[in-house]
């Protein structure tokens, strides 16, 4: 009987940590998750250059090779630059993952506190107060969607177009700033207007509503002052991590460094055949291709990790993290509505 490969369920965190048995060893993978297509052009160009050098060396009476001693000097420089490149890129990837986890943890903590403490001992909250709590928890979940879309420049509102008629311009502005994101539109208050076209991020706008809820909870006697202060600290950490992720997204490596590194790589690949051709002949083509495949591959991996919030295979699994958090929050809300014992008063 044929053997079926199935994913191993990992509840909770089903979306972000499912594991599937590998059909092929990683060493044989050349398409899915690999960077071969990104570096194919420069590697092929260096192979053609090596072929030209090997041909010229073969048809000439004298070798055109250079002393092999020049390669170690160049390779040290190339190695140092690539190490710096990948260390910096992986640090951005790791920090981005850490900040995403901080946002997720802050939302979990705030959700737990809002659902458990939104009442006064001996008194049941009114229908309006329960609706207020549920809406705020939904807004908390919308925060991580807003962060994800902001980092990917997938705006929630459509910028309005300036029109000569002031009244018409204002009408179009009101219409164009309505938030329309089907994946989490149901989490937002009805008829909520966004101000992204004015320069205000949706996450910061939503955080104001969460802050207002904390104040209302304090005024109602739900949260005592130290607890309200701690809830505000959690919200501040969430916004701070959002700002740090924004910094990672908006601060690429200096272009001067990237230009110089690519030029050094090209120079190394151009000189390498001259150092190999006298001893290796036509094998110079293969050896140069393998070396440049390795070096350009390391550079391409660094480029993928530099901005880790996109859709590349190597990027942070932002969509999976968000969906797992939505499942968690949905279960908590469902149990809270039916008065589960986990929220025992």
TrEMBL record:
Its main location: membrane. It is a multi-pass membrane protein. The keyword DNA-binding does not apply. One of its GO terms (molecular function) is chloride channel activity. One of its GO terms (cellular component) is membrane. It comes from the Eukaryota. The chain crosses the membrane at residues 26-52, 64-84, 255-276. Keywords: Ion transport, Membrane, Transmembrane, Transmembrane helix, Transport. InterPro entries: YneE/VCCN1/2-like. The keyword Cell inner membrane does not apply. It holds the Pfam family Bestrophin_2. It is found in: Membrane. This is Uncharacterized protein.
